[in-house]
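Backbone-to-sequence.
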């Protein structure tokens, strides 16, 4: 698969990967490192997340779509929302509005819950992850940092900056069970794993 754009964990043995230049999602075995199943998408996609037997993808024009793992059935989610990356928790979706520096939280039906925009704190957001409390982790590619946004969107905190070896961070993931946060840099390809502690 050329140019992997996003990745998400399906279970302890499987990850799913997506490319913005191919119209499919690949399931990859962590043990063998090989793809073993393909799910076709209706268009090229960027963002990808997995929840309760469903993939949620950001299609080429930013339309969020739900793809059911069992039968590959696809349906649109909140047609008014245009997003590049997406994360989910229950009925809530967290995404960055296409071509903006705005992070949004909304329900699957499109009802907006909150928005966050602060270019001094977050510039050119990339991948998004969410913890079990609804706090949102975002990689700032141009601002060279990593920001946590509170579950209500009202507060934020910079967790990592350029001095913390963040070099144009792109991909991130959060493991709810282990409380581990993974950050991958675009510029140097380095990957870091951090333990998240809640005060």
């Amino acid at each position: 698969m050329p140019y992997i754009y996003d990745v998400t964990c399906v279970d302890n043995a499987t990850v799913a990967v997506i490319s913005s230049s191919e119209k499919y999602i690949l399931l990859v075995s962590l043990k063998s490192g090989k793809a073993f199943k393909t799910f076709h998408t209706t268009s090229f996609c960027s963002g990808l997340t997995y929840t309760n037997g469903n993939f949620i993808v950001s299609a080429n024009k930013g339309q969020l779509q739900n793809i059911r793992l069992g039968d590959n059935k696809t349906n649109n989610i909140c047609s008014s929302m245009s997003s590049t990356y997406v994360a989910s928790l229950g009925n809530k979706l967290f995404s960055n509005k296409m071509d903006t520096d705005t992070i949004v939280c909304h329900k699957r039906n499109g009802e907006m819950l909150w928005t966050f925009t602060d270019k001094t704190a977050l510039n050119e957001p990339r991948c998004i992850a969410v913890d079990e409390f609804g706090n949102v982790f975002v990689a700032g590619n141009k601002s060279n940092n990593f920001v946590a946004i509170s579950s209500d969107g009202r507060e934020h905190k910079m967790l990592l900056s350029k001095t913390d070896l963040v070099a144009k961070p792109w991909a991130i993931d959060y493991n709810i069970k282990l409380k581990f946060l993974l950050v991958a840099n675009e510029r140097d390809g380095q990957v870091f794993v951090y333990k998240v502690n809640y005060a």
